[in-house]
Amino acid sequence: MDPFIPQSHPIVRRLESITTLSAEERDAIAAVPLIVRDLKADNDIIREGDRPSQCCLIIDGFLCRYKIVSDGKRQIMGFYIKGDIPDLLSLHIDVMDHSVGTLAASKVAFIQHEHIRELIRRYPGIGDAFWRDTLIDAAVFREWMVGMGRRDTKARIAHLLCELVVKYRAVGLTTNYEIQLPLTQSEIADALGVSTVHANRVTQDLRAQNLISWFGQKLAVLNWKGLKEAGDFDPAYLHLKNSAAA
Amino acid sequence: MDPFIPQSHPIVRRLESITTLSAEERDAIAAVPLIVRDLKADNDIIREGDRPSQCCLIIDGFLCRYKIVSDGKRQIMGFYIKGDIPDLLSLHIDVMDHSVGTLAASKVAFIQHEHIRELIRRYPGIGDAFWRDTLIDAAVFREWMVGMGRRDTKARIAHLLCELVVKYRAVGLTTNYEIQLPLTQSEIADALGVSTVHANRVTQDLRAQNLISWFGQKLAVLNWKGLKEAGDFDPAYLHLKNSAAA
DNA sequence: CGCCTATTTGATCTGATTCAAACAATGTGG
DNA sequence: CCACATTGTTTGAATCAGATCAAATAGGCG
User: Fold this and answer.
1) Which residues contact B239 (CB under 8 A, 6 or more apart)?
2) Choosing among B97, B143, B194, which should be mutated to test the A contact, i.e. which has the most A CBs within 10 A?
3) Do residues A245 and B83 touch, judged by C-beta distance below 8 A?
4) Are B145 and A232 within 8 A, CB to CB?
5) Residue B195 and residue A22: Cα distance in Å, rounded?
6) Using CB atoms within 10 A of its CB, is residue A20 exposed (0-12), middle (13-18) or buried (19+)?
7) In this predicted model, what pLDDT tens digit does every residue of A44-91 receive, in sequence order?
8) Are A52 and A91 in contact (CB under 8 A)?
């Protein structure tokens, strides 16, 4: 996509999809010390109740934000990919009110709050970019609320798949409409607030309508326009600089 | 509650419920120029697609954040009271992805982005407080998502009423468990993602169980512990400094 | 091959919607 | 100050989207 920065830093790539950074800011971000770790699937990175002193940048893999309710049901509140910092909020929210964990084997980098604060102090523009990032996170929560409150299951699944494809495209994880999606149908169900069985039946619907092909971890959108319509999807809420061909 | 600042500025009151401000910071906030306006019920303050150059502080009244979906259904995504700045996000989100409007006659104060930015530049601590405020907003969205995805209607209504009572208490709009609530049942329904009819039947349930009394605009919680249990309510997600006797 | 996890299918049940109408409350103008 | 209009609440009956329970099938992998 950007031939002059072929291997740019994941955060830089992500932030540049939603805002503009100066060369100096890019360099400053890239210079922040990272502690990289490889994690297997289904590992928690932070749990409800934790008081983190670091944030977690995703280098590669697939994470989710979730909460377990009193009767044991799980609600997934977001999916996160390369370049995302799902717990950026811990900079100003001391006690976590939910958990973040891997759904697939992932490579993550931990960054001390200290370092981020220092970065923001020196480059207020980076602080604004981070703030904007958390605000976009909130916009996604709102959009999911709209789905759960006022859209039926077919639209919700279609909408979610559209969102994921656009997010993948925005950080260069795909250039067409096929993505490598390490999600089970029961995780989809937990994200959309429906049962696994129902999620399965509706997914089959989408396949039967030739909107998508989805086997194993490979999701291919066969009819982008059709899927967007089915999901009532408008990428405006993602607030991307260039709407990644949506 | 705080006898030494009997008539403190609404934002100050709100921010001090979630963080600590210095005297200097308090004064700086109180000095920001406001353009006060009185609005009737059902007036939009910002609409989806707008590019605001100011934020709106609620002096008194009752607003909501909402979005209309393609088939005309409305999803309410939050309720806002005295001290809230529901569109603080417009500082870093250029194009609104939803609308904010009054549900009751309200007094609001508009503040130019310019002035807020200047304030943050001079007092980074205030910037942090504002950032934290938007993060708490996001935490509320998440909690509503959990409700819509994984809680039944009775728990959702109970949870919402608990949240409102705690918010009222946090800014001193009540000191007991009775609040003046200018909400119709169909607004409740639009917030919880259910039909008006169903919201009504379930509300009657809560009354029949002697958890609440709700006539006209007066809501009284008759059994706080019981209502919290019915709603699976834990105020941690509101991230208040002192959990307002929850 | 055999185990474990994920997907799929069928049958049944239920929480919630929809449609329709009655009823109550509140406000407005004559 | 009453008659009417408007908006909100309540009730009933029919229907449906989605949940639940249970079991079969299909994949992936050591």
Assistant:
1) A93, A94, A95, A97, B18, B132, B135, B136, B139
2) B97
3) no
4) no
5) 50
6) exposed
7) 999 999 999 999 999 999 999 999 998 889 999 999 999 999 999 999
8) no
For the beta sheet containing A218-221, the strands, ordered from the edge strand earlier in sequence to the opposite edge, are A178-180, A218-221, A212-215
CA A110 – C1' C15 distance (Å)?
44
Decide the pairing of beta strands A35-39 and B54-60: unpaired
Regions in chain A scoring below 70 on pLDDT: 1-7, 243-246
- Nucleotide C14 C1' to residue B152 CA (A): 12
**Tokens representing residue A97 in the block:** 């009110």
CA distance B112 to B33: 8
Q: What is the DSSP letter of A90?
A: G
pLDDT digits (tens, 9 = 90+) for B26-46: 999 999 999 999 999 999 999
Q: Is A145's CB within 8 Å of B150's CB?
A: no
What are the C-alpha distances in Å from B225 to residues A224, B154, B214, B221? 50, 15, 17, 9
> Could you give the angle at the alpha carbon of B185 between the alpha carbons of B183 and B190, nearest 5°?
90
Amino acid present at B237: Y
